[in-house]
Structures are given as structure tokens and as C-alpha cells.
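Hi! If you just cloned this repository, the fastest way to understand the data is to look at a raw example. We've pasted two of them here, unedited. The first protein comes first, obviously.
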Amino acid sequence: MPEFFASVVRTGVTALHLLAAGVLPPLIAGVILQFVTGRFRICCAEVFGSRLSVWATAPGVMLHEFSHALFCLIFRHRIREFVLFSPQKNGTLGWVSHEWDRRSLWQNIGCFFIGVAPLVFGVLAILFLTLLLLPPHEALPFPELPDGGMAGFRLQFRATFLGLCGLWVKPEILSDWRFWLWLYAMIAIGSQITLSRADLAGAKSGVLVLTGVLIAAALVLAVILPRGVSLPVAAVRCSAAICGVLFYLFLFFGALTLLLIVCRAKMVSRRRRG
């Protein structure tokens, strides 16, 4: 019996690790990305004016709020107010007001997913538009993965990131209108992936409940799955591809932010000279 329980504990820890490996990397990458996109929006407003920067990214704002509302419906939250796009003087561009039953496990878990919904929908939208508008085998290559472990994760992550970076050195793609439409969509959507304080507060209220559910799921998997099991290759591919896109967006918006900072510095210098 002691050996049985030790085996269950080892397998449970492994299963929990595998579950975390599929969920945590995209969330961590998304949190890091939101600091860069937040700074990017501030710099855009300073260089181009707040009105132009707000209206130029309106599609991203609408997708942001729509994702909140959709997850509210999935997790059976009651939507009190839903505004897709309405710029306010305090900086609010859109909002979803909702309420839920604190005694419901499903609805409490939903708080986490409703909070991070813009991150999920934003990345999925960019992936979809990349496959739709760009040569899929070049922009988003899907190599054969060796397994569902870290080796497979690294291979797909590298392929996704390098595929997106390689677009900039292909003259035939740069002259295609679909590339520039994709670029605009990526900026409009990617700049609005940032989670607001209300989004983070909502996600925080559900993360403890979700953690408990994941631990319970890990224990169930420990009994059901064979020892040494790895994540399904499809799950690893999805997680790695999302992380590759997020890392690309991090560098992309970081470079744009630095460019805008330089432009702003030159504008200030000219004003002082004048």
C-alpha cells in the first residue's frame, strides 16, 4: 500500500506539472506583454494624439469587450451592461458589467476566464488572421513534434516565432496588401490585449477556485493515466504556438514603443528650439 500511495503522489505531481505546463506559459507571457502594450498605447497617444490612437485600435477594443461578454454567457454570469466601444473622458473605451452567484463553482471558475478572455481571444484572432491572410506554411509552420514534452514545446515555439519574424525579409509578402491588412489587425488587436485592473481583479477572484479544480483533476489523472504520461502533442503545439505569438508581439510592440519614444523626443526637441 505505501508503494501504491507513493506512486499515486508521484503521478499526481507529474499530472499537475503537465497541466500547468499547458496553461501557465501563455498566461505568464501575456502578463509580460501587457506592460509593453500599455506603454505602446501611451506613446501612440503622445505622438499621434489620443483621438487617432483610440479610433485606430477600435476593432481591438470591440474584440476585447466581446470576449468578456461571450465568456460571461458561457459561465452563466448575468450581464447588466455591455458596451462594445464608447470612449470616455476617464480613458474607458468599453465595458461589460456582470454579476454571478458566489455559491456556484462553475460561475466562480468563470471569473478567471472572463478576466483573461481578451488575452485568449486576442491571440486566437491573430492566429486566425495569420492563417487567413498570409502563407500558412511560412507564417505559421507546424513541424512534426517528437513528443508532448519540453522538446516538442521548444520546437513549435521556435518554429512559430521564426516564421513570423521571417515575414519581414520576404519582399513578395511585403508588397501584398494582405500583409498590411494583417499588420494593421495585429496592431489594433495586439495593443488591446492588455488586461485592465478590473479584468485582473476578476481573474484573481476565480484563480483560487480554478487552482483547486486543477489539483483535483491532477489527482484523477494520477489514477487514470499510466505512469510517465506526457501531454497530448496537440496541447503542446497549441500552448507553444500561443507563446511564440506572444513573444513575437512582445518584441514587436517593444520595438514600436522605442521608435515612438525616439519620435516623441525629437518632437519635444524641435518645440524647444522653436
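Ok, and the second one:
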Amino acid sequence: MSKAQLAANGYSNGGERVKDFRTQEYDVIIGVTRDLQRLRNDANANFNDIVNAVHKNEKLWITIGALVSGDANALPQSLRANLLYIAKFVSHHSNDVLRKNGGLDVLVDLNVSVLRGLKGTL
């Protein structure tokens, strides 16, 4: 096999389907949500694990908020505004959870709602 063929094979996807951006978003959000759900359902969850999961979720929502705030974002303005509101709410509620003044239910419910929206558009 020539060097050119080897190089071409190295860049081929080997028959694997390349995920589109929306599917990638879904995969990231569902991973974070599963962590939150697992901890929510564990009566003996370690608080450090909760802190890590909440931080990971908040980081996700900070990223989403930054992405929808950009002028180049093509989502409808109302959807962008709703996602930005959720991002701010997640930040506020995450602080409540870390102060032990709130639970994981709200964070899980918000993520599940967004996942349903993404699933409807996949």
C-alpha cells in the first residue's frame, strides 16, 4: 500500500458515522445528567462527588450561555434568551446545592427538558 493510501485510510472514518453537532450536544448533556441522577438517587452520596457533578453541570451551562450569547448564533432569539435564562438559573441553583440549601432534582429536570428538546430535533 502506498503512503498516500495509508494516509487516506488514516483519515477515513472506517465506516463509522460521524456525529453531527446536535448529537454531540446531546451526548455531553446526557452524560452530565446521568451523573446528577445517580447522585440524586444515592442516599449515601459523597458530598465531594456532588460538588464535582454540580461543577461539571454548571460548566456545561456556562458554555451554553456563552454560545447562545454570541451574535453569530443562528438559534431563534427567543430560544437563545430561554437558554441564557436557564444558564443563569443553573448557576444560582448550583450555589444553593453547594450550600446545602437545594437539591439536584431541579438541575436534573432542566437537563432532561433540554434533552427532550434536542431529541425532538435530532
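That's it. A detail worth noticing about the second one: Residues 21-121 form one domain.
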